[in-house]
Amino acid sequence: MTETQALRPVAAGDRHMSLDVLRGLGVMGILAVNAVAFAMPMDVYMTPKLSPFPMTGAEGDAWWVVQTFFHFKFVTLFSMLFGVSLLLVGGERSDKPRGALLRRRLGWLTLFGLIHGLLIWYGDILLLYAVTGFGVLLFRSWKPRTLFIVAITIILLGSAMAVLPIMALDYAPAEIRTEVLKEMAKGDPADIAAAIATVKSGFAGAMSVNFKAWMFLQPASLLVVIWRTGALMMLGMALYKWGFLTGRAPTWVYVLLVAFGAVGLWVTGMESREKLIIDFAQPRSSGALQIGFEFLTLPITLGYASLAILLLKLDLFRKLLTPLARLGQMAFTNYISQSIIMTTIFWGGRGLGLYGDANRVDLWVIVAIIWGVQLIWSPLWLSKFSMGPLEWVWRRLAYGKGLARAA
């Protein structure tokens, strides 16, 4: 058997439904978080009080739902699953042909990420995943215990570094505290209005705003976010090797994590509500009221995963979750299509130009409609084809001519 003949995409019968369901949840949850960044300037996404819509009543409640139940939870899940894909494609480090295949896939993903980020939407995550994957693939043969310890250590250190310096401002000299708070308070409603006007002005304006945002976000991600992303990929590898993500862990483990996740949601929900009450005042909003968010996001995410895996053990829910699994099976296609749909709705010059016109409540309606469409079209597509259209392109490029037709 030749090297090319030995390398084939995963056959339909060999797929783990739990992984596909979790990918589907990840793609859907990411859209709920990213919606405001499609519809408004990036500064509004990062600093909610800069929104052109007052953060009160239903608007505040809509933000609270995203912040409590979605923000960082589903990108955390998706990052872990990307780590699993590194194992499934690349195998052990001793498997040279599969290792070469993995590097080709990541190379093409780098190109896809650049195209997506520069030409469609600046918030692309594919470039970050590709670059991170080139580093993490070196550790895919580590024992699960080692992967777990290293990953958790990096995640905890990152969370501590995110909140402790802000909390330390309470004990800093007055002049330092004043200067730091001044920097944190940067953001001008006039700049938000100008950005909205530029995006609505037409294709050139929209692309100029997209490029400026890309130039800020992507280098920052590759310098800062890459560490947590890599750790989450390693954690996903460990959990896959232990059988947790494929439903082979003891039932009590999943039940316990669901309970921990529920407690985490309660804590972060209280934090989010308090941020609204104090109108996101600093340093408390990024310090003391960020502790639960930073340290409980992972337990919440594992709680979500555990609940989905427990439901999959029941025949009724297994059938009900099949459309979600199909959505996850086409995660790449659905992720890019979300960007195309949202920029078509909001950006000037290539769509309806509704940028800055939709509040968070409106965005929830749009997100729900897109979820529904993707839950319907993904099973329909896969009833005729073995994989999504972009999955086919990606695999054809990585595997070579003819192999992408394999299921």
Report on the architecture of this protein:
This protein starts with a helix and ends in an 8-residue tail after the last helix. The chain is mostly helical. The longest helix has 39 residues, at 203-241. The chain has one domain (3-145, 186-252, 318-405). The chain has helices at residues 3-6, 17-39, 42-46, 57-70, 73-90, 96-120, 126-136, 144-167, 174-184, 189-200, 203-241, 251-277, 291-312, 315-320, 322-329, 331-346, 360-382, 389-399. The relative contact order is 0.17. Helix content is 73%, strand content 0%. The radius of gyration is 21 Å and the shape is globular.
Termini separation comes to 19 Å
Classify the beta-strand content into a percent band. under 5%
Count of individual helical segments: 18
Contiguous uncertain segments of 5+ residues = 1-5, 403-407
What count of domains describes the coordinates?
Answer: 1
Query: What sequence of helices (H) and strands (E) makes up the elements?
Result: HHHHHHHHHHHHHHHHHH
For the report, how would you describe the main beta sheet?
none
The whole-number mean of residue pLDDT values reads 93
Give a short overview.
73% of the residues lie in helices and 0% in strands. The protein is an all-alpha fold and 407 residues long.
